[in-house]
Amino acid sequence: MATKTSNDAIYQGTGRRKNAIVRVRIMPGSGKITINGRDGKEYFGREALLNYALTPFKVTDTVDHFDVVATGTGGGVSGQAGALRHGIARALLQAGDYRLDLKKAGFLTRDPRMVERKKYGLKKARKRPQFSKR
After folding, report:
1. Does 82 have pLDDT greater than 70?
2. How much is the pTM?
């Protein structure tokens, strides 16, 4: 869904990971990352999470070609970083012919792993109460 706004295209993508959902808009620019109105480094707090989220740009060789504006809800910072990576990859599909590179790197596949529910009679999903013979 590419929309034209003042001669610049805006490409959109939605990323999901665990319970996190991030809506991503990328537009041609200088590489500025904004998440929920805050700078990317400030939002994630760790450089590693931001680097992880921006790997689709490295794979497609488009580092500092696009500005990213994202809104994230749900989950924690790690899940949101994964969702941001997924959303950026989906938005890059509309921006150019990057499908082969992104698919090979595995960025277009949604990570299906979720937290397992807690079962009754157990302390967590699989942890059992301590057993005492006597």
Report:
1. yes
2. 0.89
